[in-house]
Amino acid sequence: MNAAPTPAVVPCGIDLVTPDPDTAREFYADLFGWTYDADGSTALADGVPAAGLRTGTGPARWWTRFTTDDAPAARAAATRAGARVEGDEVHDPLGAALRLSVGAAVVPPGLGRPAWYEYMTSSPTEADRFLADALALHATVPPGAPDDSYALLVAGGRPVAGRLALPPPLAGVLPTGWMVYVAVADPDEAAERAGSRGGRVVVPPNDVLTGRVAALADPAGAVFTVIRPAAR
């Protein structure tokens, strides 16, 4: 009997898990202008939920959340592809992880909100195979690209994320797995502000195909990227 088709599973939002949520709230309020709901578990950008915040042990990290209408089927597909599934967490064979949400709406675009999601890896062929088998995200090299080091991850005929084969200079600097991109008006100013508020600049501001970006770390070490998306 053939396995059921893999359900559509696409990025929809972000969560920060950190051992020091109070410091994180202050840092991101200053960096993105975030405010918070009554219990501090949801960050708001212009009143719109932009991110979740959770207290957790171990290194601070940003998680990408994926939405699906069929969580059991999504878990089964990920397991068949070699992932370890623990509740809503999917840990893939290459060391990356994501969280599943059932029927969650995608966070709308805007400053201070997630603008893009990118799977960073040193094993692009294996990553492309897993992402297709587990999430039905199919790697497509953009027209005119010089090679396949960068691919768009397509679902339902549209790009919903990217896959980057980390070049040697970045492979030792950026963590593998899902990278969160948050929209800002000025990545250079955001990098300067992060560094002066207890964070650090991991990759200085630079121009890429999708816009101007800078990779930063918050005071607890959680790495994320700010982006001013390129004009379309």
Which short descriptors sum up this protein?
single chain; 232 residues; alpha+beta; 2,3-Dihydroxybiphenyl 1,2-Dioxygenase, domain 1; eight-stranded mixed sheet; 5 helices; 21% helix; globular
Can you tell me about this structure?
The chain has one domain (10-229): Roll (2,3-Dihydroxybiphenyl 1,2-Dioxygenase, domain 1), CATH 3.10.180.10. The protein is 21% helix and 42% strand. It has helices at 21-32, 71-80, 124-135, 168-171, 187-196; strands at 10-18, 35-36, 42-45, 48-55, 61-68, 84-86, 89-91, 97-102, 114-121, 138-140, 150-155, 158-165, 177-183, 200-208, 211-217, 223-229. It is globular and about 45 Å long. It has an 8-stranded mixed beta sheet, with helices on one face. The protein starts with 9 loop residues before the first strand and ends with a strand. A hairpin with a 5-residue loop joins β7 and β8 (97-102).
Q: According to CATH, what is the class?
A: Alpha Beta
Helix content: 10-25%
Order of helices and strands: EHEEEEHEEEEHEEEHEHEEE
**Radius of gyration over C-alpha positions, nearest whole angstrom:** 17 Å
Strand order of the largest sheet: 2-3-4-1-5-8-7-6
Shape: globular
- The fraction of residues assigned to DSSP E strands is 35-45%
Q: Ranges with pLDDT <50 over ≥5 residues?
A: none
Largest sheet: 8 strands, mixed
- What is the tally of beta strands? 16
Spatial gap, N to C terminus: 45 Å
Q: What's the total helix number?
A: 5
SS content category: alpha+beta
Kindly report the average pLDDT value.
Answer: 94
